[in-house]
Amino acid sequence: MLYWIWLTQIPFIGPIAARKLIEYFENAENVYKAKEKYLEKIPGLSIKQKKNVIEFRSLKEAERILENCEKQSIDILCWQDERYPTRAKEPKDAPVILYYKGHFKEIERTIGIVGARRCSQQDKHRAVNIASECVEKGITVISGMAKGIDSYAHTACLNAGGYTIAIMGNGLDICYPSEHYQLMKEIEDKGLLLSEYPPGTLPTKYTFPRRNRLISSWSDKLFVIGAGKGSGALITVDYSKKYARKVYW
């Protein structure tokens, strides 16, 4: 797993470039050991990206991250793992590794539920009803564990005995928002916590939009509830449209 972590820590090597390297060399260890003459043959990578693969050939940071994962009971899902859903791997910018806590189960159908952090009682009831109906139909509920609609959807799913996935914009050793600590523990116990960020990564205005694209890619459909102008949920909508997912308001 060290080589997979290493690949994601190379400067200027994002998910798209990492995926090109994996597709060419078959796995992360082969990328690490690749000679420069073979790297030069890969189309679609800049000179700087190819240079960085060579210059940042050290496993020290990957070893530190893996050690932190082991201390925090965080597991790692890599690109070639059969548990990585096909739907989530379709977009070109899908991460080659994801950090997770909880347990995987066979996922046949998924629905993303996102919306306003400050919402009306009517919107709250709608989120609860949709999540509850998903459980009755055996559909996995996906959201971002944010305040408001996200948390209501997760909670309703858990209360109904369903399976929910929370995709987070920070390392899984951090609970954000902090008041959702108990919810986070319940999702870990009964569902799945996911993040593309290693432990210790703080939430920022940059990590949340990246998180939102994963909510879209992991969901077959997206329900948007009470999201007004400027809401982060609209970023999720844009990604859902980009990934050809149906969006319901």
Automatic annotation (TrEMBL):
<comment type="similarity">
    <text>Belongs to the DprA/Smf family.</text>
</comment>
<dbReference type="GO" id="GO:0009294">
    <property type="term" value="P:DNA-mediated transformation"/>
</dbReference>
<dbReference type="Pfam" id="PF02481">
    <property type="entry name" value="DNA_processg_A"/>
</dbReference>
<feature type="domain" description="Smf/DprA SLOG">
    <location>
        <begin position="76"/>
        <end position="249"/>
    </location>
</feature>
<protein>
    <submittedName>
        <fullName>DNA-protecting protein DprA</fullName>
    </submittedName>
</protein>
<dbReference type="InterPro" id="IPR003488">
    <property type="entry name" value="DprA"/>
</dbReference>
<dbReference type="InterPro" id="IPR010994">
    <property type="entry name" value="RuvA_2-like"/>
</dbReference>
<dbReference type="Pfam" id="PF14520">
    <property type="entry name" value="HHH_5"/>
</dbReference>
<dbReference type="InterPro" id="IPR057666">
    <property type="entry name" value="DrpA_SLOG"/>
</dbReference>
